[in-house]
Each structure stands twice: as structure tokens, then as C-alpha cells.
Amino acid sequence: MKTVHTVEEVRAAEEALMARLPDGALMQRAVAGLVTVCARLLRESGGVYGARVVVLAGAGNNGGDALWAGARLARRGAHADAVLLDPAKAHAEGLTAFRSAGGRVVSVDDGVGLRSALAQADLVLDGILGIGGRGGLRGDAARLAALLREGRTAGAVVAVDLPSGVDPDTGETPGDAVAADHTVTFGTLKAALVVDPGAAAAGTLHFADIGLGPFLPEAEMTVLDDADVAALLPDPGRESDKYSRGVVGVLAGSAQFPGAAVLATGGALHGGAGMVRYAGPDAVATEVRERWPEAIAGPSPDAVGRVQAWTIGSGLGDGREDDVRAALGAGLPVLVDADGLRWLPERFTGPALLTPHAGELSRLLDVDRSAVEARRLHHAREAARRWNAVVLLKGSTTVLAAPDGRVRVNPTGTSALAAAGTGDVLAGLAGSLLAGGLSPLDAGSVAAFAHGLAGQRAAAGSGYPSAGDVLAALPAVLRSLRGPVGGG
Ligand SMILES: NC(=O)C1=CN([C@@H]2O[C@H](COP(=O)(O)OP(=O)(O)OC[C@H]3O[C@@H](n4cnc5c(N)ncnc54)[C@H](O)[C@@H]3O)[C@@H](O)[C@H]2O)[C@@H](O)CC1
Ligand SMILES: [K+]
Predict the structure, then answer these.
(1) Complex-level ipTM beyond the 0.90 threshold
(2) Residue 65: CB within 6 Å of ligand 1?
(3) Which end of the chain offers a freer environment for a tag, N or C, measured as fewer CB atoms within 10 Å?
(4) CATH number belonging to domain 2-221
């Protein structure tokens, strides 16, 4: 599991650690990690000796890191230029070290010199802003970010700690931000690095351990890995029967969208539930049974018999309010997707997982879709609090926010999932995990993780996979995550 901490938590941990170390030692740890990555990247493009490095240094410690790193690379034979955004406030020790290693300072006002240095650079260090940054980049900093974004440098852009201009705690980019190829981050992850649009601006992540671990609190925000997901997946042992593995009800699909019923039921069948009961119109139920003979079907939630959780909403269309209210009123764990989101109660009192995409969440919260895309964490958290439900916001980075403040960010997302019907598969799968006894936060994060891997696997096979391809890839993904089932 990867942990993500806030600026406040990082600062407190740094303070506690610095009190035990000689002056400047912590920064040197960060610089050592940064230089290791830079040297590796430069070796790939011909070596450190003779390489051209440009340091963009802001007025804070982030600029200090970058200047020290530039100094170390210069000592190893690189030609280093530094652009100081606020020369009077530049990090004094870093600048002295940079100059005594032979580094040159280029004025930010020297347009010709600046462009030529950037154009020739093998590596650009973005040390404009780190965790002290607030608001979008302004003035010269914005101009530099624009030059980098326009590709005015052939070399790799390496962000120090985080790409400058991205809000550290949210991943939002309120104004201009640097688009990096790599980011070397110190001590722990920040939200800026895992939530879009920040995550996209960070490029490839590298972690430099500076020893903060023992001083950091338990993280509210986490990113699960394969082992976490394997541990969370319900394990149907030798003793379990179809009922103890959970029965999930699927209220999805309509005459207009019968495929949603088929895909959600398919997702539910793959999620480990012992039985799936489908509730919907006869014609749709017939299609579901033709595709999945193992599913049981009935015309309404009341008619299908007992279940342990409901998946509600994918492709439901109009006029199903009574059915939705019946399923929601059963007092069972529920997953509400798509059209089901139109009939939410004021507040949930039992376990609930909502799975909107940005458009659906924007309608729920009555804000613009672009506002949701720009502030994904903020809006997911707000909806989680308002409805007392876990909110899984689908999209470029899928985030899950729980009403108690916990957040999970899914690391397996892929653009391959941007196809009609993939959300129905996810809803079925997550509902099945709810029926298997997982909490809404666990069910949603495990489902998103496996669904993302299935999307990647399907894309490797067909390039532009359909929802059916993603569904077909699920069994192999789940098998490889949890190992063989039923071994006892
Ligand atoms: N505290 C420590 O001991 C360590 C800090 N480290 C580095 O220090 C960084 C944090 O340093 P600082 O706290 O000095 O903060 P930063 O260097 O991130 O930036 C702070 C400066 O930028 C200005 N600023 C804020 N928002 C701005 C904006 N939108 N446009 C222009 N200027 C803006 C502030 O007024 C302030 O002068 C970390 O990200 C990391 O790179 C590392 O060296 C590890 C050790
Ligand atoms: K930076």
C-alpha cells in the first residue's frame, strides 16, 4: 500500500526529524535521492559528464533542492545553468554551492539566453515550487512553465518533489503548472502526484526515502497494490456454499438498454457472489438468462427473493423509481450507479457505495462537469459527506471518498475503460463484493482495481476493447490476484 500525506503532516514530520539531525542534513538526503534519479536519466541519454542541465529555482527550499542537485551534477562534469525566479531570495547555501561547482546563472529576463539554454538542455530541474506552493504559477514562473509545456526543451523535465503549480493536497491546477516527465518526491506521496490533473503533470514517479516514515501519522489517503487487493478479496473456502458466498441482486437494464443488465449481471457473477438474482422486465430477464443461465431472474426486487446486497441503476432508464425505492428500502448494503443516482434518499443510513462519473456527480451536486473534473477529490468528498455514502468517482483517476474522510485512489485506471458499458461491469462486480461482506470502501476499491487491470489486459488483446472484452478479462485478472480458488 502506498500512503499519501498532507502538507501539514509532512511539515510536522520534517520538523520532528530535523530536530534529531544536523542542520541541512534532511535537505541533503532529498538532494541525494534527486541526483540519483537525474544521473540515471542522463546516463540513458549519454552520461552526466558534458550533459546540459538547467535548474529552475524558486525562492523556497524546493529551489534549494534543485540548486544543490545542479551543483552535484556540475561537479560530475555537467554544464549547469540556473534561472532564479527571485534572485534576492534564492536559497543561499544552494546558490553558493551551485556557483562554486561552476554553475552559471541565467537571468530570467534574458529571453535569448533562456530559450537557448532550455533548447539545448538534456535535463531541466523544476524547483520552482514544492509543498509551499499555493495557487497557480504567476509571472515569470508561469512563463517558464509555458515554455516547458510547449516542448521548448528536448531533455527530460524532472520535477522536484511535485510539479510546480499543482496544489499539493488536492492535485488541482488552479492556474499554470509545469508538465514534468518525471517527479522525484520526498518522504511520502502527496495527493498532487496521484490525483488528476496533477498526476498527469507529474509523469513517472520516483520516491526518495528521507526517513520521514516513523514521524508520519496513519494516512487517510492510500493507494492499494496487488497484495492489498488479494488480501481483501473474499476467499471462498472449501466449506462455503452459494449462500455463504453472498447473493447479490441486480436491478439494472431496460428495454432500451438491455446490455447494461447483461454486463452488470456478468460483473456480479465474476465477483465471487454465490448467486446473482436479476430483477427487471421479462424481455430483459430473458436476455440475461440466455447469456448467464446461472442467474435467477424475476420482474421486481420483491419478486426475486432474498439477497445480501443490491446493485442498482446501470441502464435503468425512466419509470423505475418504485423498484429503486424498494431495493434501497430493504436495509441492505447497496451500490447505486447511473440512472439509480436520480432517486437517492436524502442520506443513507446503511452501507452505500455510489459510482458516478463526473457528469453524474455534477448533476448530483448541481455544479459544472468541468468543475468536477478540475476538483475531483473535493467533489467526491463533498458528496460522500452529504449522502453519508462512499463515493467512487470514475474517470481519469478514479478516487473513492468515504464519509469518515478516508480516500483511496485507484492506480490501475486506463483510457481503455472509456467505452460504453464498462461502468455496468464495474457496478456488478462491486455489488458482488458488497454481498460477499466487503465494506463499501473495500468493495469499491477492489472492484476498481480489478476492473482497471481487466481493461489493461483487454486493451493488450484488442487495442480498443469493448465492455464485453473487459468482462471477459476479469476472471484471469481475479485469478492472478488471488491465486486458485477453492483449494481449502
Ligand atoms: N523542510 C525541509 O527540511 C525539507 C524540504 N524540502 C523541500 O522543501 C520544499 C518546501 O519548501 P518551502 O517550504 O520553502 O516551500 P517552496 O519551496 O515550495 O515554496 C515556497 C515559496 O514560494 C512562494 N509561493 C507560494 N506559492 C506561489 C505561487 N503560486 N507562485 C509563486 N510563488 C509562490 C512562497 O511565498 C515561498 O516563498 C519541499 O517541497 C521540498 O522540495 C526537502 O529539501 C526535504 C527537506
Ligand atoms: K517543483
Answers:
(1) yes
(2) yes
(3) C
(4) 3.40.50.10260
Give residue-wise pLDDT tens across range 304-352: 999 999 999 999 999 999 999 999 999 999 999 999 999 999 999 999 9
Q: Is 211 left (phi over 0), alpha (psi -120 to 50) or beta?
A: left
CA distances from 59 to 80, 85, 90, 165, 175 (A): 18, 7, 5, 14, 19
Residue 486 has pLDDT above 80, yes or no: no
Residue 128 alpha carbon, nearest atom of ligand 1 = 17
Q: Give the pLDDT confidence score for residue 488 in this predicted structure.
A: 39
Give the distance (Å) from ligand 1 centre to CA of residue 134: 10
Residue intervals in the chain for CATH 3.40.50.10260: 2-221
Domain with CATH 3.40.1190.20 in the chain: 226-482
Is 395 known as a binding-site position? yes
Local structure of 248: helix, strand or coil: strand
CA angle at 215 for the pair 213 and 220, rounded to the nearest 5°: 75
Considering the domain 226-482, what is its CATH architecture? 3-Layer(aba) Sandwich (3.40)
For ligand 1, atom 26, name the residue with the nearest CA: 133
Atom of ligand 1 nearest to the CA of 11: 1
Is 410 a known ligand-binding residue? no
Task: Please write the tens of the pLDDT for every residue from 361-387.
Answer: 999 999 999 999 999 999 999 999 999
Mean pLDDT of 456-474: 92
pLDDT value for 299: 95
Residue 135 assigned as binding residue: yes
Q: Is 309 annotated as a binding residue?
A: no
Name, in order, each residue with C-beta under 8 angstroms of 424's C-beta and a sequence gap of 6 or more. Answer: 252, 259, 260, 263, 264, 267, 314, 315, 337, 338, 467
Ligand nearest to the CA of 132: 1
Q: Is 50 in the pocket of ligand 1 (CB under 6 A)?
A: no
Which pLDDT band holds residue 487 (cuts at 50, 70, 90)? very low
61 lines ligand 1 (CB under 6 A): yes
* Ligand 1 pocket member 18 (CB < 6 A): yes
